Write the structure tokens for this entry.
Amino acid sequence: MGLLTLAIAPGIAICIYIYFKDRHNKEPGKLLILSFVLGMLSTIPAIIFQLR
């Protein structure tokens, strides 16, 4: 479980940085979360191809 936390932490840190850094035209939180989740899901095809 610790390795999973270490793998996800940089992505969450980048999302938080982007959200709080932009003061005038903030990105919607839902879109940041969606892009983070889609980024995680995009690794599944790479894992499948690596295992073949």
Residues 14 and 36 are 10 Å apart (CA to CA). The radius of gyration is 14 Å. Helices lie at 2-21, 29-41, 43-51.
